[in-house]
Amino acid sequence: MISDEDRARRALSAVDELEAVLAAARSFALRIGGPEARNDAGTFYRARRLRDFTFGSHATLFGEPAWDILLDLSAARTMEKSITVSSACIGSCAPPTTGLRHLAALEAHGLVVRRAHPGDGRKCFVEISDSGNAMMQAWLERLEP
Asked: Total domain count for the chain?
């Protein structure tokens, strides 16, 4: 007989596997539709997703949800795409509550801003702030050879 604890462990393991598959799919979709390879936030975000995919379950050793959110939002700004709070949390490649916690911290530090969805009061968009974007661009420029 399987205990409730074992069922919960198996369910969490399945969720972890699904999150890895979703991250790989998102990375693939961004790579197809993304800009040419160069030092931009999208390139670094895709590289992190590729790293996660390659290392599989070991990728949890490398987690930086707040940085993943900033990279994702910076890439979205470059591509002029709107990102919902839910999507930003998925972009963090962390559990939803962890993504929300890091998103709140980024907002408290003025690096991201939320705005209401114009057609759906239940949704919010999140974007990198002007100051957050300026810092991201300064970081990216320093990486140029």
From this structure: 1
User: What are the phi and psi torsion angles at 41 (to 5°)?
Assistant: -60, -35
- Which range marks the domain in which residue 47 is found? 4-143
- Give percent helix, percent strand, percent coil of the chain, each to the nearest 5: 70, 10, 25
Q: Could you give the CA distance from residue 12 to residue 9 in angstroms, rounded to a whole number? A: 5
Q: Cα 35 from chain centroid?
A: 17
Provide Rg for the chain, Cα atoms: 16
Cα 74 to Cα 80: distance, rounded to the nearest angstrom: 10
- What whole-number distance in Å separates Cα of residue 124 and Cα of residue 96? 15
Give the domain CATH number at 26: 1.10.10.10
List average pLDDT for each run of 10 residues in the chain, which is 145 residues long: 82 73 63 54 83 80 86 92 91 89 94 90 92 90 72
pTM: 0.67
